[in-house]
Design goal:
412 residues, alpha/beta, 15 helices, homodimer, five-stranded parallel sheet
């Protein structure tokens, strides 16, 4: 098996481990920068290598719409397409279908929706999404799930969680069929009512030629849903864990509007309910304080667009909280963004210069701040890992959070 | 003297040389990437180093408005501000005052104009511009000149050329005063009528502290104007050359609307009229064919925003002409932009990927194309230099232009 999870040290729930993938090892806890459209916004893959990123994300929903997962497949898969030969995880698009797309209609089969790009009608099923993720060729692929708002009531949370588990079984069957069965055209899976506006992509799932030679085994991760309802989360974790020997687990539906204590409580619940032998990936969570709270609750992998989105908006993480570089007070500030940061931005440029770039709408500013913010989270997780290994994670986390939280968060 | 021009080989008018500056040598012929606002748009200084850029540009007009040359000075000068420790040349802003600014009023003293950023009234004199360029602290500073449209009639061209020469004398006097004389507040130089909307920047020309220790000798380059009128160009060159032992010469007012044969004729005229012992800098010219035609006519330095502006618009230079990456034909094109290019873009990414980035409005696309285009011109000038040194410049230029011109230029 290409995927292994090697736990090296633990401290209560926190653990330092190595997640082995076909494209190399990922030392955890780790933050995974998000390359939604096959690019981590404003950054070059080389920037990511140099700042020590190991695993990055792509997004099935976005890449299906642009450039098309068929194009990515034809160009040799996502790794080759975006020139990233480290591990990649693709999100299934569940979150995007329920947050970005318009006019959704959900039934047990799947979800019909309109593309947020051109309004064309699409129909996502668990099977189609597995085909899309196979075309993209990431190391880890996430199941297609039914995502609901963070504050949903128990009935809605239970309904979505149970549907997600039924869809998980279909995802697994489809992955097995794609890996083991004979190549079968899957257009029959497009179950939307015949309609001229429904786009029927020409999938060619036959594994031949150069791409086939490259296609690695893919690890399907289930996603534990259940809103902020502990017993639904517990049931979901138990049902999922008993279904199959999964290579890892996603934890979804958090950091979507619920308050922080509720999120941390759910992490405690899931930490207890999931096997400790496998990696846990907390989806869409990327603020420094949440990463640390997650690590303390047994989370291994994180992702979020926050560091690049904030970077493009002029906000920088620092050890003393967030900083908005556009403020007039930085006009002639000769200091780096964060005086203890070793990133390519902080080791060279002043706040005054970066502020100038933002005021003058120069793209280098967006890149320098994105670089810094991504480096900040990667470095934070390296520090956490080291603290776990040296048995000091509790104190380290307490001190880090005390300093960080002493400064009020800024609006960006 | 910190500035020396060492001619190594010649072939008719073309020459391979080294222009020594306080921040290092520039092997010529050379293309200088333009960092208008203290950044070569979309690129990191490190990108420029890696592609072999030696000397880059900044712009006095733009930097005076944002962030203010006083800010740049306070931050240690342009080299330190933008983290570029190679040679820098600043353009005087003459071109921008006459092309970007609104509501200009010119008299013998200088030009009153409204900022294109906030509409505030400003008054540029040759003296003020020298103070701005001194604050910026570039190695080479251009005189403030009176720029006119490319097709201007003889009377206008003569008037502007003669005024530019009178302003040159004032620039030289001011540079000498700033370098040698006692520090004097220069606010008396703000000669616009008293008006509350006139911004009076608080210059502090005293040379003390850290900045003073860094301030290198600056080379003032005059600019030969004269439109497309050979005898005015000749007179300008003669007047300028007899005024002072300049470290080099700018050739201005070309590639501004006149046709190509007229531009090449003016280059022939100026080539004859200027001393062959000093560098010649053809301002604002940056298309591959014009660089080659310029080299054949004794030009050593070029600059232009074309490679980065085109790059942001989706156009790439190739040895077979220009290519518009957004075209549908590149959707699954696995080739690099230019198959014989060694740049960081072409050595990694396909046309299909870069097209995807443009279609999806991803900033990495702008950067990858800008990288390629700037590399293309730097590499072109390195090839020209080598061809001069091996005595093959004529054939090399003929073959290069034949292939490049065989493809029709595309509109971008």
């Amino acid at each position: 098996m290409s995927f292994q999870f090697e736990v090296q040290s633990t401290s209560d729930s926190a653990r330092a481990a190595v997640f082995h993938t076909p494209h190399g090892p990922v030392e955890t806890p780790a933050f995974m920068p998000v390359g939604t459209l096959a690019t981590v916004k404003t950054l070059d893959p080389e920037d990511l290598v140099r700042m020590g990123a190991t695993m990055i994300l792509g997004n099935a929903y976005h890449l299906h719409l642009r450039p098309g997962d068929d194009v990515v497949k034809e160009m040799g898969g996502l790794h080759r397409f975006m020139c990233w030969d480290g591990p990649i995880l693709t999100d299934s698009g569940g979150f995007q279908v329920f947050s970005l797309a318009k006019l959704r209609t959900l039934n047990e089969d799947g979800v019909e929706f309109q593309s947020h790009i051109d309004g064309s009608k699409r129909f996502f099923t668990p099977e189609l999404v597995m085909q899309i993720e196979r075309n993209l060729g990431a190391d880890v692929i996430m199941q297609f799930d039914h995502v609901i708002p963070g504050q949903s009531d128990e009935a809605s949370a239970r309904d979505a969680s149970e549907r997600s588990i039924r869809w998980l079984a279909r995802c697994l069957a489809e992955v097995n069929r794609l890996e083991l069965g004979p190549p079968v055209p899957h257009l029959k899976l497009m179950r939307a009512e015949p309609d001229k506006t429904v786009v029927t992509p020409k999938y060619v799932p036959t594994r031949t030629g150069e791409f086939a030679a490259q296609l690695q085994q893919q690890a399907l991760f289930p996603i534990v849903q259940g809103g902020i309802h502990p017993h639904i989360r517990r049931q979901a974790a138990a049902s999922i864990a008993s279904m199959h020997d999964w290579p890892g687990f996603g934890i979804g539906g958090l950091s979507v509007g619920e308050d922080k204590p509720a999120m941390y409580e759910m992490l405690d619940v899931v930490d207890e309910a999931l096997p400790r032998t496998h990696p846990r990936y907390l989806m869409g969570v990327g603020f420094p304080e949440d990463l640390i709270e997650g690590v303390l609750r047994g989370v291994d992998l994180f992702d979020c667009v926050a560091p690049t989105r904030m970077g493009r908006n002029g906000a920088a993480f620092t050890h003393d909280g967030r900083l908005n570089i556009k403020r007039a007070e930085f006009r002639t500030d000769p200091r780096p963004l964060d005086e203890s940061c070793q990133c390519a931005t902080c080791s060279r440029f002043t706040r005054a210069y970066i502020r100038h770039l933002f005021i003058a709408d120069e793209m280098l500013g967006l890149r320098l701040l994105s670089l810094h913010n991504v480096h900040f989270l990667l470095s934070l997780m390296r520090s956490a890992r080291q603290a776990i290994q040296t048995g000091t994670i509790e104190e380290w986390a307490r001190e880090w959070l005390l300093r960080f939280r002493a400064s009020p968060p800024i609006e960006v």
